[in-house]
Amino acid sequence: MNGTAKPGKLLLLVAGFLLWSSAFVVLYGLQGLGCRLGWDAVGLGPVSLNRGALLAAWAVHLGLIGFLAAVLARRRSHGRGTAFLDRAGLALTFCALVATIWTGIPILTTGSTCS
Amino acid sequence: MTDIRETRGFPANPDHAPDGPAAGAPSSDLAMRLHRDLDRIWSTPPGIGRLSAVNHTIVGRRFIVAAFVFFTIGGLLAMLIRAQLATPHGAFVGPELYNQIFTMHGSVMMFLFAIPMFEGVAIYMLPKLLGARDLAFPRLTAYGFWCYVFGGSILVVAMLLGVAPDGGWFMYTPLSSNTYSPGINADVWLLGITFVEISAICAAVEITVTILKMRAPGMTIDRMPLFAWYILVTAGMMLAGFPPLILGSILLEVERAFDLPFFDPARGGDPLLWQHLFWLFGHPEVYIIFLPGAGMVSTILPVMARREIVGYTWIVVSVVAVGFLSFGLWVHHMFTTGIPHLALGFFSAASTLVAIPTGVQIFSWLATLIDGRPQWKLPMLYLFGFFVVFVAGGLTGVMVAVVPFDWQVHDTHFVVAHMHYVLVGGFVFPLLAAAYYWLPHVSGKVARYPLGHAAFWLIFIGFNLTFFIMHLTGLLGMPRRVFSYEPGWGWDLPNLVSSFGGFLMTIGFALFVVDVTLHVRFGRTAPRNPWGASTLEWATATPPAPYNFASLPTVSGRHPLRDAPELPSDLAGGRGYLGFAREGRQETLGIHMTAATPDQVIVLPGPTYLPLFTALATGIVFLGLLFKVYWLVPVGAVLMLAMFMLWTRSTGQRRDGGPLPIGRGASAPVHSEAAGAPSWWAMVFTLVADGVLFSSLAFGALFLWVSAPAWPPPQVLDSGWWVPALTVAGLAVAAVAGLRAVAVNGSSGASRSAGRDFWLLLAAAGHAFALAWLVVLALGTPDPTRHAYGAATVALLAYAGFHAALGCVFALFGLWRSRTGHVSAARSLDLRIGSLWHGYTAVTGAAGLLLVAVLAWLVTP
User: Which of A11, A18, A31 to mutate to test the interface with B (most CBs of B within 10 A)?
Assistant: First the structure.
């Protein structure tokens, strides 16, 4: 290690995947909620309100994880924390970003959101 | 080097001088005296006194032996299954008994073998690998062990009495509901397994705290053995994975016992809620079982390959990624339940994704082998078995992750085969490799006879005969859990081959038992570190002393024994940290989580019967519930509470000790005077698990509103706004008072004690006030047996009420500890732990009441 970090910095290792977890739960919950409230039948431009809400939630999470990845990349380039925490934290955040993209793709590819 | 204190710079202050070796004596005499002193302090009494054992080496060994006994029971049940299915129209057992047999086989293997076995290995190995003398909470280890044995015994005794669970190891409702399972069988599962799960939560908390806080000085997280990383992630997964099942079990038992219809679709419940709660646990469970096995592989394989593991950081990244992704797979078991395709897509995507970090680990291991100089020794043979079997299981896992394929093979023997390939490949083969790898450590002996090789080939060939063929049986359409089948459907031969293979495998396991017995009984004395490993467990004596290390090491890399081959003798000679016996106390070191510098002396409790008695009191609660003798339940609960209170008698101090010398010229405060004491962190992680349980309950309530039929309910809670507001106010007062008590306690004013006691009393009063209003709210809730809405509302209120009641206990306990001199400005641990509880109770109480209000609003026409 080329330095020390506060115990709270260990959270940087899992921050990206905590956001992925949030994305996963929100997408699944929102899909069910939208179906319960009939959003699938409500139009929102070219998509239904349900799909629009899902796309928005997905985009917000992608933005948050992307932002986190950028912060960690800058932090690593400045050598602020420990080499291992920075490297592993950045790698995990990048993995979380890819995971969020991959798990959200069905929003773009399925027909109805409720059948 | 005649005086350890002189050579290592112990301060000469006689007030702080430990009972160390006398100056001027020869170093070997000093070392012998040190070992005698430590042995006297750390040893467990013989005879009946063994029941008071809390030492991790002893309790870990007991976990392993008990888990193996349960494995044997589960294996015998598997043989009964194979005997029944060997031929069409098998007349070995009837359908009722067969249902019990396959249910018990799955339950025993999952809950009574796999998880406890990994816990046992972790409990035994972790402190040694990390360079500590014990786990953070030895009494909790022992309590968990007794809960495990008692809970498991409930299941086994029920089986012997013919009333074992018979609804499948995942106990789907409505089959397991009262209507279709009116006897005691399902209750045995729900209560027995929940009893066992106490040990899992205990183990998860203490493993997490031990890894984060009790590593050897210098062992920064990037120097941790990979096994510790795997176990850390596994423990974290247990904290998040077990609470949903515990909640599901409680809700189903409450439905069965008191008719609250959480899962009854006719009254607003939903059987799918059980499936969600079960698989929220059940799928991560697969990885909870696999990751420790992979940790063993990552530990043993580099030693066998005589090369440092390739891609340490990437393995850590992969393990953490698997830990998270495995939670996104739970609906993968529910693809045929009619869930919308889009939702299936989320889970299918996550299911395929998890293969990638798993694959990264496999390629790291292969690269290590390719670039190393592998030795074809016995542990390596079992690792070969692991590679073949687990990779095949992983590939079929990707197949069933794809929805259309899963629809074809759902509930067939294909899935049974896949599951066994993953679990036996991912856990049992690495475990057998680990058994042979660490047996010299446990027994101090090396094998004299090569029976292990024959055992391997019997197990390996038998396993593949059984389960490879079973894939085909499944593809031919044979459903799982059927006790008989017709001849001529193409299932005869594959079933016969599977049964033959099963018996071959059993002979292999029997040979393994014989081999281990011969090894322990007739083995030759093992040299220290027979494999040439570089991890710290081989720096102990073999078999290890109860204190592991006579003094604690300093670590400067990932390979302490390779970096410093003289380390074992240095440690044995007392030339590390804490190389002395002080005031007859069991001492080990706590460190800063990331910097790994010593920051506290952790004083551990010695042997005591309290864990056993507390587990017996816990057993009274569970037996009272099982046999519906409900007056026994509060009796047991009060006894439990009293026992836990007795645990605190030997903790803490009545005067400030200040920094104590720890050797090597350093000093550190005792843990009760340190900021990040293990018990404070334990409360943090306990609350994490508690938070997951609360989130699962909130999810359940909302899920019923979203998905369950027969909504809206006929009646809705109409409490107005002021009763919930008063309740939240009471909880908020308690939380603020808890914080103020800590703050005032740390101040230097003349009224410090009085102020602190006032705030603690106020915290207790706040909780009591909130509890009273929660009772009022619960009494005003529409009949909870009429509709799941009422049941969910009562559950949320009960959750808040339980926490408020315990909040009272915490506040009054803090007051008692303060009045008895256990609390000072420097010693505020009891208050800080209580404050965490008060804050958590306020947050979840407010969230729970908000959810109650939102639910009422949502269902009001």
Answer: A31
Q: Which residues on A lie below 8 Å from B325 (Cβ)?
A: 17, 99
Handedness of CA B184, B185, B190, B193 (dihedral sign): positive
A2 Cα to chain B: minimum distance (Å): 10
- Dihedral, CA atoms, B779, B784, B787, B793, nearest 10 degrees? 70
**Are B707 and A9 within 8 A, CB to CB?**
no
How distant is the Cα of B513 from the closest Cα of chain A, in angstroms?
41
Cα–Cα–Cα angle for B758, B760, B766, rounded to 5 degrees: 100
How close is the nearest chain B Cα to the Cα of A52, in Å?
A: 14
CA–CA distance, B554 with B217 (Å, rounded to integer) = 5
In A91-110, the residues whose Cβ lies within 8 Å of chain B are: 91-92, 95-96, 99, 102-107, 109-110
In whole angstroms, give the CA distance from residue B33 to residue B39: 10
Per-residue pLDDT tens digits for B309-335: 999 999 999 999 999 999 998 998 999
* CB neighbours of residue B402 within 10 Å: 14
Position B355 pLDDT exceeds 50: yes
Nearest to B641 by CA among B809, B814, B414, B779: B809
Residue A64 pLDDT greater than 80, yes or no: yes
Residue from the list A95, A99, A115 with its beta carbon closest to the beta carbon of B317:
A95
Q: What is the pLDDT of residue B17?
A: 40
CB distance from B592 to chain A under 8 Å?
A: yes
B317/A88 Cβ within 8 A: yes
| Contact (CB<8Å) A88/B325 | no
Residue B103: its H or E element: helix B95-107
| Residues linked to residue B591 through DSSP beta bridges, in sequence order | B598
Q: How much of chain B exceeds pLDDT 90, in percent?
A: 92
What residues in B contact A96, CB-CB < 8 Å? 321, 324
- A2 in contact with B at a CB cutoff of 8 Å? no
Give the chain A residue nearest B557 (alpha carbons): A1
A5 has a pLDDT exceeding 80? no
pLDDT tens, B676-691? 899 999 999 999 999 9
Nearest CB partner across the interface for B707, out of A32, A91, A110: A32
Q: How far apart are CA B755 and CA B747, in angstroms?
A: 10
Cα B565–Cα B569–Cα B573 angle in degrees, nearest 5: 150
3-state secondary structure of B818: helix
pLDDT at residue B179 is higher than 70: yes
- The percent of residues above 70 in pLDDT, for chain B, comes to 97
Contacts of B483 (CB under 8 A, 6+ apart): B84, B90, B93, B94, B95, B98, B99
Percent of chain A with pLDDT over 90: 72
Half-sphere exposure at residue B20, Cβ-oriented, CA atoms within 13 angstroms: 32
Q: What is the mean pLDDT of chain B?
A: 94
Residues A91, B327: C-beta atoms closer than 8 Å: no
Regarding predicted confidence, which is higher, B651 or A38? A38
Nearest to B342 among A18, A31, A87 (CB): A31
3-state secondary structure of B19: strand
Comparing alpha-carbon positions, the chain B residue that sits nearest to A14 is B320
* H or E stretch at B517: helix B492-522
pLDDT of residue B3: 35
pLDDT attached to residue B253:
97
Question: At residue B10, does pLDDT exceed 90?
Answer: no
* Rounded-to-integer distance, Cα B722 and Cα B669, Å: 48
ipTM value: 0.95
